[in-house]
Design brief:
This protein is mostly helical. The chain is built from two helices and no strands. α1 crosses α2.
C-alpha cells in the first residue's frame, strides 16, 4: 500500500515537472518571438531613416566626400 502511494506521488511530481518545463519552453518561445519582432521593427526604422537621409542628401548640392560629410548636413537643411 505504501509503495502504491509512492509511485502515485512520483507520477504526480513528474507530471508537475513536465508541465512546468513545457510552460517554461512556451515562455521562452514567446520571448524569442518578441525579440525577433523587435529586431524586425528596429531594422525597418533604421531602413526608413537611412532612406530619408539618402533622399534628403541628394536634394542639395554636394561637397566632395574627402573632407567630411557636410553634404549630408546641407542636404538635410535644404530638405527642412
Amino acid at each position: 500500500m505504501n509503495s502504491i502511494k509512492t509511485v502515485l506521488l512520483l507520477g504526480l511530481m513528474s507530471g508537475i515537472l513536465l508541465f512546468g518545463g513545457e510552460a517554461i519552453g512556451f515562455a521562452a518561445q514567446l520571448i524569442e518571438l518578441a525579440r525577433c519582432l523587435l529586431l524586425l521593427f528596429a531594422t525597418q526604422q533604421i531602413g526608413g531613416f537611412a532612406e530619408a537621409i539618402g533622399s534628403a542628401a541628394s536634394i542639395g548640392f554636394r561637397l566632395p566626400l574627402r573632407g567630411s560629410s557636410a553634404h549630408i548636413v546641407i542636404g538635410l537643411a535644404n530638405a527642412v
